Amino acid sequence: EAGVTQSPTHLIKTRGQQATLRCSPISGHTSVYWYQQALGLGLQFLLWYDEGEERNRGNFPPRFSGRQFPNYSSELNVNALELEDSALYLCASSNFGQEPSTDTQYFGPGTRLTVL
Amino acid sequence: AQSVTQPDIHITVSEGASLELRCNYSYGATPYLFWYVQSPGQGLQLLLKYFSGDTLVQGIKGFEAEFKRSQSSFNLRKPSVHWSDAAEYFCAVGFNDYKLSFGAGTTVTVRA
User: Fold this and answer.
1) What residues in B contact A104, CB-CB < 8 Å?
2) Could you tell me which of A4, A83, A115, B25 has the fewest CB atoms within 10 Å of its CB?
3) Which residues in chain B touch residue A101, judged by CB atoms under 8 angstroms apart?
4) Most distant CA pair in chain B, distance
5) Which tens digits make up the pLDDT trace of A56-115?
6) Chains A & B: contacts with CB separation below 8 Å
7) What angle do CA A48, A112, B108 make, to 5 degrees?
8) What is the DSSP letter of B28?
C-alpha cells in the first residue's frame, strides 16, 4: 500500500512569491494534516482538512491556506513568502473516525521550501 | 499551559547498549501519546502509540514505551540499539482537537 506522497521534494522561491505544495493521502484516508518543521521552532500544526472542509487551524497567519479536493488530496498555499517560511512542510493523513482514539496520523516525506 | 517536553536534546549510545528517551506532558487530561522517528531528510515514521489499556506498548523496530499517569510520562525504550537507530525521535500528544503537539525532539547518535 502506498504511503503519503508529497510534491515537490524541494521548492525554491524568493520573498514575496507564492508557493504551492501538494499532498496525496494514503488510499482510504479522508483527513489531511499539514505541519511546519522550521529550524529552531520544531514541528507545528498548520491545518487539518477532512471531507473537503477545513476543520482546524494552527497559529499561522492567513497567508497560509489550503484546500482539499474530492479525491482527498490536498494543497497548501503560502502567499507573500517571507524568509522565515523556509522549512520542511510535512503532510499527514488519517482515516478519521468519530473518536479521537481512532485517529493515527501517517506522515509523508515532506517538501523542503527555501525562501531566498 | 499544555506542553510536551523531551528533556534530552541529544543522546549518544553505544551499539548494543540500551536506550531510553524521556517524554513528559502537561495536559488537563490524559492525551493520546505517540512516538515518531525521523531519519535525516525524511518524514516521520510512527513507532508506537498509546490510547488506553495496557500501559506498556510495543512498537516497531523493537521499541516499547511505558505510560505512567502519575508521572505524566511516556518514555521510549529499546533494549539493544543498532546503528540504524541513529535518528531524531519525537514524542507527540493528541487530544480531542485531532491535532498533534510535538516535543522538541531527541537526536540519537549510535557509536560503534
Assistant:
1) 34, 46, 49
2) A83
3) 32, 51-52
4) 43
5) 999 999 999 999 999 999 999 999 999 999 999 999 999 877 666 667 899 999 999 999
6) 59
7) 90
8) S
